[in-house]
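Fill in residues.
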């Protein structure tokens, strides 16, 4: 029971570690393939283990004679002058538990005096921590800048979508205006054709000769058919225009709802961009 009580605070501290270690690297310990060694740990939020590992591999290549990557990254004959005048061996293991937003780089420094830990000589200890801190800051800024770019792209996409909706609104309004003009013209055409038909029915034929009457009757029937066709076409055009206007008005309503939703999404995304920018600016 006493052992359990002694272990519990340490367990809680380890669990809370990523939350407490965001600003600067901290000392810890990690089980590497050749044993447990003291480490300088750097924690990265919202980063994949692969991109963190790739970054540290690049950093090791810049200062090491050789870098191997089997069970962990190892920089052989690495030079960190601030930590040691001699070459070092640097081990890096990246850990990201399933479901966690934190990826932790465990970095061990092996000098001629042994692995660097919190009780090591000041130069080795502070030099190793500062080397990790400088590179950690660079990677955090890269990750933060990538997040700013990602959020800005999403904002740009939303803004383009809103612009498209606004252009569609303008087109629909122009179509309603033009269709309204066609509706008015169809109404005038319908009234004119109906009036002409009515006048035709009430107007007596002026000729009396049977031959002329037959020709006049035929001509009158032809004119009647023409006017009836005009009336039918005008009625159809009027009904078609009314339906078109109704459809366009419905499209405008949906467009207005879409613009409202898109504007709300833009405001939310603007806040996300601002938060990402503030996070980037806070990394020093």
């Amino acid at each position: 029971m006493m052992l359990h009580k002694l272990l519990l605070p340490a367990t809680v501290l380890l669990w809370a570690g990523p939350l407490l270690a965001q600003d600067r690297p901290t000392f810890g310990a990690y089980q590497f393939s050749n044993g447990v060694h003291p480490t300088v740990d750097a924690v990265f939020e919202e980063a994949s283990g692969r991109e963190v590992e790739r970054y540290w591999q690049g950093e090791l290549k810049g200062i090491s004679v050789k870098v191997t990557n089997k069970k962990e990254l190892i920089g052989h004959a690495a030079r960190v002058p601030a930590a040691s005048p001699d070459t070092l061996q640097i081990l890096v293991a990246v850990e990201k538990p399933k479901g966690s937003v934190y990826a932790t780089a465990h970095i061990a420094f092996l000098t001629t005096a042994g692995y660097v830990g919190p009780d090591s000589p000041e130069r080795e200890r502070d030099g190793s921590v500062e080397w990790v801190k400088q590179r950690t800051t660079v990677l955090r800024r890269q990750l933060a800048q990538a997040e700013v770019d990602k959020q800005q792209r999403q904002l740009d996409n939303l803004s383009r979508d809103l612009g498209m909706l606004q252009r569609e609104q303008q087109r629909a309004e122009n179509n309603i205006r033009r269709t309204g003009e066609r509706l008015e013209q169809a109404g005038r055409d319908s009234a004119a054709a109906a009036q002409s038909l009515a006048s035709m029915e009430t107007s007596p034929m002026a000729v009396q000769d049977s031959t002329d009457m037959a020709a006049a009757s035929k001509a009158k029937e032809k004119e009647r058919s023409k006017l009836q066709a005009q009336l039918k076409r005008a009625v159809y055009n009027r009904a078609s225009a009314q339906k078109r206007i109704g459809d366009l008005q419905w499209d405008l309503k949906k467009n207005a709802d879409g613009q409202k939703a898109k504007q709300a999404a833009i405001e939310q995304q603007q806040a996300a961009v601002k938060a990402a920018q503030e996070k980037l600016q806070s990394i020093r």
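The helical segments are 2-20, 49-63, 122-202, 210-282.
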